[in-house]
Amino acid sequence: MSSTFILNTADRERLTAAHPAIFNRGFMQRYGFLTGIVAVLVYLTACFFFFNVGPAFMQGRWDRASSYIQDWYSWRAQPRLRFEDGKVAPQWSSRRQYPVDAPIDWLQPLPDGGYSVVYAGTENRLDVTTTRVDVYVDGKNYPVIINGDTALAPEALPEEIKQDGNKVLVHYGFAGQAEIRTSQVYVQRRFLGWANFLFDTKSEFWGKGYGDLAALALWGERLDPQRSNISHMVDDFLDNSVWQHADILSKLMQTLVMAFVGTLFGTLVALPLAFLAARNITANRAANWGMKRLFDFLRSIDMLIWALFFTRSFGPGPIPGIAAIFFTDTGALGKVYAEALENVDDKQREGVKSVGASPIAVNRFGVLPQVLPVFISQSLYFWESNTRSATIIGAVGAGGIGLKLLEAMGTNADWDKVAYMVLLILFVVFLFDHISNSLRSRLIGKTQH
Description:
By secondary structure, this protein is of the alpha+beta class. The protein has helices spanning 9-18, 20-23, 27-50, 53-59, 62-73, 210-218, 229-238, 245-277, 285-300, 303-314, 318-341, 346-354, 359-398, 401-411, 415-448; strands spanning 74-77, 80-84, 87-91, 107-109, 115-118, 125-128, 132-137, 140-147, 150-152, 161-164, 167-171, 176-180, 184-192. It is found in: Cell membrane.
């Protein structure tokens, strides 16, 4: 059995008068969410046209981006097969991946003085001579004739071969590509992994498998009577002339020192200044105002700008990086510390003051124990954050791994080394994040007991 309750006009007016916020909602209360969505869509549309997002995507070199990404997890052997005195002479870049005169299975000499470049079996290869390059795609030959100032391909070509002016481009997918010119053939042969990451071609351990290396390290005879094989391996690894492990690890440690020292100095300076900025600690309006404005000035200038300024003043190196972190953190930590001090429990201060303690003792025993866990927690967070920031400011000349990273990117050919340094930075950031979180959780836990 059900009943229906019907309000009359008097009851409806009485409820409306008693609860006007419910029955007479404003426009924003009714349509605020929808209005916000429309505003965001209008804003994004305006940004799309204002920043020319469409043309930027259309003009993007996506093929080049794909090649760079492949360089992160693979390596390219890039010999130039130059035409000299009727013969083909391989010429290697500074990052030569093979020892001089070492046999290479995919680059084989031909009886007539040329070379055969194998990409994917004999069905996809180049047979290079000074007058002709036979391009094989799926076993079918497409001869490229080198005549005068032109390398000329046949009329009917598959999609892997393209005539580009007086040169011919050949693309075999991930396996690599080639550019056939009248004076040389520029070869790119790609393989998974990082070539010579452990040892360069000058090392006695080059080319040995992991099993052979383990045997040499554990029970093999010494290759150098003056040191163990393990010590020999470590030295050759750090002295790798291509990957420069010793230099990269040294720059990484420099970055960590920059972050730690800059954060430490910022903490030590911000701590006493925050007591001057806190209105409930220092009863001087001028001192409060002046100190807070100093904090605003220091933190309003980005760390990168400070790094540029100090780099121009002191030259490149870790000192400008430490100074940039110190200035920025002094302003940011000073503001955070001052706000924490202004929210302390005055009962503890009054208790210490009631026994006749000096102002310094009041702050030491009545204020500092309340805020010290918060101060240390914030400093640990800034230390963790500055580990990442030190990489960025290093790229503008403040030293550290950031500068090394910028140099590798500038070559436009060392993207595998870029990936290596990025992975090192990520590992350090994850490690420091774990350490910082553990320390902060311990401090917070102590305050709860």
